[in-house]
């Protein structure tokens, strides 16, 4: 039976994690052109559309980091696009007063907004009410079918923090974010707003024309 990663992430947001047994399981996909490897401490999930995993180098596939072995991911992608390996963060989510963000269709051409449309569904592009500001948030149906945030700001950690806080103000339920480990400024901003690291995620796709650049 395929695992629902949304349930796994909801549990992780509440502090309940998969067993540390070195195992892996198949999970349901959530997007027609996106598949993924999601790893927690000592356990991994492969969200793939078929049973290709039976053809993988199983001696390298385990829940102790092996699921992210580049040879495993390359075999799964079969020549398609492979996104960067990201830290997977979760926030429990609790709507509060209005956060001050507004719809900003004028920022829809931004690379981060375009990336979100290729890899996620129901994408909204939000920003500050000041039309001169280019800070933006993408809010969409992303990893595991949960609400996913992407943030782009020209300021420092404090500016990013205020943008994330404003976005969280209108969200009920768990929120996920995928952040490149080397993007320390973004990691600090997400951690400062209550996101917690729960695992790692690497997205990939096998469909022609659905290639996506790395998100950082």
From TrEMBL:
Lineage: superkingdom: Bacteria
Protein name: N-acetyltransferase domain-containing protein
């Amino acid at each position: 039976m395929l695992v629902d990663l949304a349930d796994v992430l909801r549990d992780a947001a509440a502090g309940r994690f998969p067993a540390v047994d070195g195992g892996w399981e198949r999970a349901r996909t959530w997007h027609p052109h996106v598949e993924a490897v999601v790893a927690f401490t000592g356990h991994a999930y492969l969200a793939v559309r078929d049973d290709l995993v039976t053809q993988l180098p199983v001696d390298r596939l385990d829940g102790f980091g092996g699921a992210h072995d580049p040879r495993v991911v390359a075999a799964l992608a079969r020549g398609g696009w492979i996104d960067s390996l990201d830290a997977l963060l979760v926030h429990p989510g609790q709507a509060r007063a209005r956060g001050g963000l507004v719809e900003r269709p004028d920022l829809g051409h931004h690379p981060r907004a375009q990336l979100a449309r290729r890899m996620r569904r129901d994408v909204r592009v939000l920003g500050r009410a000041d039309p001169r500001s280019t800070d933006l948030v993408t809010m969409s149906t992303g990893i595991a079918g949960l609400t996913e945030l992407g943030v782009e700001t020209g300021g420092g950690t404090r500016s990013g923090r205020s943008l994330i806080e404003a976005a969280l103000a209108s969200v009920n339920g768990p929120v996920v974010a995928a952040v490149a480990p080397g993007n320390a400024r973004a990691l600090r901003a997400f951690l400062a707003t209550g996101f917690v690291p729960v695992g790692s995620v690497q997205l990939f796709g096998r469909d022609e024309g659905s290639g996506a650049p790395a998100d950082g």
